[in-house]
Amino acid sequence: MSITDFSGIIKKIKEKERLEKLKLATRKKYAEIKAHPVLYALQKEKEKRRYQERKEKKQIKSIKDESPRVQREKRRKWREASDNPIEFIVTRGGQRTAVYQGHTFVQMTSTRWYCSKRRGDCKAILVMTEDRKFVELLKDHDHPAPKLFRTATGQIVRLLDRTRD
Ligand SMILES: [Zn+2]
Which of 73, 108, 126, 153 is the most buried (most CB within 10 A)? Predict the structure, then answer.
């Protein structure tokens, strides 16, 4: 291997390090912004503007650009969502859990919540916006809804499921 090959590799490593540092710095900056109410409001405003711009440039599809079939399907899902609001509970294990149509979902990313029975192979995914508004339900559940009940104070509690190990 010649010296020039090495310099190429070093360059690549340095570039990777640079990007990694940048990523960490961005994350830190965002955490700082989030902790500061005024800065956070400004940031949200900026993100909203950016979203509007992308929408105007047609980088984001509006429902009106979809085919009538997709429009009908989306509208049906939205209607269903407004009839079935999402509720949030914290399980005894401290896991953030969403309840939708009697099924429970665990947060996996900022927008994706997976069915609690995903280990039992259920593929249902609840998609929400970051501020937790319903977007869509992907895939159907392959099992009945778990036994949930509401306490007198309005809290939802999941009964222990003996079939799970
Ligand atoms: Zn499921």
Answer: 126
Q: Which regions of the chain are under pLDDT 50?
A: 164-165
- 88's CB contacts (< 8 A; 6+ apart) are 96, 97, 98, 99, 132
Tokens 């047609």, residue?
A: 58
pLDDT at residue 1, as a whole number: 55
Gap between the Cα atoms of 72 and 161, Å rounded: 37
* CATH (domain of 115): 2.20.25.240
Q: In angstroms, what is the span from residue 141 Cα to ligand 1's centroid?
A: 4
- In total, how many domains does the chain have? 2
Between CA 91 and CA 130 the distance in angstroms is 21
Distance 160 CA to ligand 1 centre (A): 16
Q: What is the largest CA-CA distance in the chain?
A: 75
Compute the distance from residue 61 Cα to the ligand 1 centre, in Å. Answer: 29
CA–centroid distance, 133 to ligand 1, in Å, is: 19
Mean pLDDT of the chain: 82
Rounded to a whole number of angstroms, the distance between the first and last alpha carbons of the chain is 55
* Beta pairing class for 125-128 and 134-138: antiparallel
